[in-house]
Amino acid sequence: MGLAGLLTACREPAGDRDTFCAQLRRVPVITERDDLTVPDTATATGQLVTELRRLQESAPTQIRGDVSVLVGVAEDLEVALSNGDQAGVEAARQRVATSTEAWKAASDNVVIFASNTCNIDLGKTG
């Protein structure tokens, strides 16, 4: 196997558009744009994190980075709302506090992708 083959084998596999769209339709906690825009205690559940991870696994290359941002913020929020060790909880809270713009930009991109590619209306962006 040449260098190019080795690099290809080490890359994360690209998701499939149809699989991603089907998975997006099955996510019960993402029913409208607000669920993607403002993470709060109602949506920061294990279910949200699990479903976002599934979306991340199936996400096509062009949207995977945005879904990864949503996963990261949701994971931080889950920790911030937990009763875990105080230092970890506080660090997660700080990360959540500074990630609002990244979350909004990523969610806007997912909303646009869902509309344009999957014909799923999660709401208006902006």
Provide the succession of SSEs: HHHHHHH
The major pleated sheet works out as: none
Helix residue percentage: 55-70%
Task: Quickly count the helices.
Answer: 7
Mean pLDDT reading: 77
Judged by helices, strands and strand pairing, the structural class is mainly alpha
Strand content: under 5%
Shape: elongated
Number of discrete domains:
1
Low-confidence stretches: 1-11, 31-35
**How far from one another are the termini?**
47 Å
Radius of gyration: 16 Å
Number of strands: 0
Q: How would you briefly describe this protein structure?
A:
It is built from seven helices and no strands. By secondary structure, it is mainly alpha-helical. The protein is elongated and about 40 Å long.
Note the main attributes of this structure.
disordered N terminus; 126 residues; mainly alpha
Task: Outline the structure in words.
The chain is mainly α and 126 residues long. The chain has one domain. It contains 7 helices and no strands. Helix 2 packs antiparallel against helix 4 and helix 4 packs antiparallel against helix 5. The longest helix is centred in the middle third of the chain and has 20 residues. The chain is elongated and about 40 Å long.
